[in-house]
Specification:
Low-confidence stretches: 83-91
Distance between the termini: 60 Å
Structural class: alpha+beta
Largest sheet: 6 strands, mixed
Strand content: 15-25%
Strand order of the largest sheet: 3-4-2-1-14-13
Order of helices and strands: HHHHEHEHEEEEEHEHEEEEEE
Number of strands: 14
Number of helices: 8
């Protein structure tokens, strides 16, 4: 039977290897889900090291106090955002400051029709544009009827969960990009911004390679120059949706670090300490993001009944 020091040493080494894996894109079955939970290793490693040092250092209290403080800070930074608030997410009123673009993005869970709950959230937040991933033609039609918003194009769900669409207060005409992800990828111009809706494969089972290709494909899409003179391409960019990726995934960090026609891309409300969005009941992972070349003024998450993801919203200027 392993003694306490040996067990702590094994935990420390395993946690260190776990963290190192998050530095490299490894599209191998089982690795991306492990990388997604690297925040657990970031907490386990210092905890194990503190335990080991406590065992070997005896009464060297100043050193242990210093390390314990560091561990507490790590726990607060990485774990606290993942603890659901007993009071629910902070509210956001429907007043949008002038010159601000408010975006709402939500994975709606394609097996249900959550039009009424979605419309209620739209009424509360009053966004300029809404990106619905994993939606259906029926759900979008019902959201239009209840909210008064307009879809930018037809919903193409494919064999099930492939529907993605952009809705806005005023009618706009959008278009779809094909061949980048397995799912629909709409684009439309809303409030002077170029908005792209995204939903990628999840990096599980046999879809790991496809997920890796899709994230790389999105990066290549953003890096393509606006050399054709299309003023729409020169507009500020907002790419939002369910990326099925976290900041612990190197592929997503590479995507979020893309420069779009010389402009830096930002993950509004995201990053390693961004509020998680999945699963909605007790979120532990932030899979949903709003990437933009605009400045992030404010951001948050919102719980919508009937879905398995929290929605993400952002005020951009």
């Amino acid at each position: 039977m392993l003694g306490r020091p040996a067990a702590l040493a094994i935990i420390a080494v395993a946690s260190a290897l776990w963290l190192v894996s998050a530095a490299f894109p490894i599209p191998v079955r089982g690795i991306p889900p492990l990388q997604a939970f690297s925040w657990l290793a970031a907490c386990a490693l210092p905890a194990a090291l503190v335990g080991l040092l406590a065992h070997v250092s005896g009464r060297r209290r100043p050193l242990l106090t210093f390390l314990s403080t560091g561990l507490a800070l790590a726990l607060i930074t990485l774990v606290a955002p993942r603890i659901p608030s007993p009071f629910g997410p902070p509210g956001k009123d429907a007043t949008v400051p002038d010159a601000t673009v408010r975006i709402l993005s939500l994975n709606t869970l394609w097996t249900t029709n959550n039009a009424r709950a979605i419309s209620q959230t739209i009424s509360e937040l009053n966004p300029d544009a809404v990106i619905l991933a994993e939606t259906t033609p029926e759900e979008v039609a019902d959201v239009e009827a209840h909210s008064g918003y307009h879809r930018a194009g037809p919903v193409e769900p494919g064999e099930g969960a492939g529907g993605v669409q952009i809705l806005s207060r005023a009618p706009v005409r959008g278009r779809d990009h094909e061949g980048i992800t397995e799912f629909q990828m709409p684009e439309a111009s809303v409030a002077g911004a170029r908005i792209v809706g995204v939903h990628t494969l999840a990096p599980v089972a046999g879809d790991v390679g496809g997920w890796d290709r899709e994230l790389r494909g999105l990066k290549q899409f953003l890096e393509s120059p606006a050399g054709d003179g299309d003023p729409h391409k020169l507009a500020p960019l907002i790419m939002a949706g369910d990326f099925n990726a976290t900041w612990w995934h190197p592929q997503f960090r590479a995507l979020a670090g893309t420069r779009v026609d010389g402009r830096a891309l930002h993950d509004c409300g995201g990053g390693l300490t961004g509020a998680p969005t999945w699963p909605s009941a007790a979120p532990t992972l932030r899979l949903d993001h709003i990437l933009t070349t605009l400045t992030c003024e404010d951001a948050g998450t919102v719980k919508v009944d009937g879905t398995d993801h929290r929605g993400v919203w952002a005020d951009l200027i």
